[in-house]
């Protein structure tokens, strides 16, 4: 079941990048869509809860502080990911967010005692090389210095989020609370978004010509976003699953799938290095799942 959950998470995560690309093409307000996305994700998740559970009472839970922190990180990093994809490049956004796999993998080995094997180290190393080769594309000119720090922030922030997700699943959130921990994160992200999004995207919102389409895009984004987190959580909760395996497999899959989606849906040209990177990523998956 773990591999099935990972595959579903990869599908949803890839659709996130595709939607950002479509928002840019059809001039939707990314800021509006992101805020609506987290409301929809929270509502979608709450539909799966027992009727006796009130999502708005999560502030009474001892893990509420963690959901509030992760909600803030989700909304800010989502804005940053969209900005990088649309203003610096989709490949830069992909590699910055998915190479962050090194953060939770390192934390899993150091903090949680995940087994260290030659195959795992070799697979992780090949994964990082494969992600880089599959994502980086030739750029003409040089990005402004002030923009170069954004991918670094996305790299570190995404890695911290993955680490916190595993920490919450294993150390903080009781088994009986795990079903509504994720919807509570989305609810907090929506509330944070109401506060910060108008300031982050005020210029883009002012030029948006189709609020209805932006809201519709946010609904679709919310369903896909919830699925990406829900399925990775289920993968982590599977019997025998180790985060140092789950995260590399999921992130490699997203980069490979995003590359193919870019080729087939948007006509993006893949270099020989990009294709080689996809091949290395697939080989890394085989190595990491063969012990």
Sheet/helix structural class: mainly alpha
Radius of gyration: 18 Å
Shape, principal axes of CA atoms: globular
Distance between the termini: 17 Å
**Quick one: how many beta strands?**
0
Amount of helix: over 70%
Strand residue content: under 5%
Structural overview:
The chain has 291 residues and is mainly α. It has one domain (2-288). Helix content is 78%, strand content 0%. It has twelve helices and no strands. The protein has helices at residues 2-25, 30-46, 64-87, 90-98, 102-111, 118-135, 145-172, 178-200, 202-207, 211-237, 243-266, 272-288. Helix 1 runs parallel beside helix 11, helix 6 packs antiparallel against helix 12 (272-288) and helix 11 runs antiparallel to helix 12. The radius of gyration is 18 Å and the shape is globular. It starts with a helix and ends with a helix. The mean pLDDT is 81.
Summarize the structure.
With 291 residues, the protein is an all-alpha fold. The chain has helices at 2-25, 30-46, 64-87, 90-98, 102-111, 118-135, 145-172, 178-200, 202-207, 211-237, 243-266, 272-288.
List keywords for this structure.
single chain; 291 residues; mainly alpha; 12 helices
């Amino acid at each position: 079941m773990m591999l099935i959950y990972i595959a579903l998470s990869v599908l949803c995560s890839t659709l996130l990048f595709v939607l950002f690309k479509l928002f840019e093409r059809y001039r939707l307000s990314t800021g509006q869509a992101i805020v609506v996305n987290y409301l929809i994700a929270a509502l979608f998740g709450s539909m799966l809860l027992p009727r006796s559970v009130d999502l708005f009472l999560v502030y009474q839970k001892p893990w509420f502080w963690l959901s509030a922190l992760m909600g803030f990180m989700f909304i800010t990093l989502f804005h940053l990911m969209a900005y990088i994809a649309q203003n610096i490049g989709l490949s830069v956004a992909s590699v910055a967010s998915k190479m962050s796999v090194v953060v939770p993998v390192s934390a899993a080995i150091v903090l949680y005692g995940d087994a260290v094997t030659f195959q795992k180290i070799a697979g992780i190393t090949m994964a990082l090389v494969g992600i880089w080769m599959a994502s980086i594309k030739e750029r003409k000119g040089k990005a402004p210095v002030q923009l170069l720090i954004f991918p670094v922030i996305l790299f570190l922030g995404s890695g911290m989020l993955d680490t916190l997700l595993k920490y919450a699943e294993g150390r903080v959130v009781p088994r009986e609370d795990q079903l509504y921990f994720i919807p509570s994160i989305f609810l907090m992200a929506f509330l944070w978004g109401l506060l910060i999004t108008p300031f982050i995207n005020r210029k883009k919102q002012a030029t948006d010509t189709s609020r209805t389409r932006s809201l519709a895009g946010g609904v679709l984004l919310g369903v896909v976003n919830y699925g990406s987190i829900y399925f990775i959580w289920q993968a982590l909760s599977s019997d025998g699953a180790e985060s140092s395996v789950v995260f590399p497999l999921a992130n490699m899959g997203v980069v490979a799938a995003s590359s193919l989606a870019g080729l087939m849906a948007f006509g993006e040209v893949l270099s020989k290095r990009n294709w080689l990177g996809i091949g290395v990523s697939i080989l890394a998956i085989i190595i990491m799942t063969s012990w």
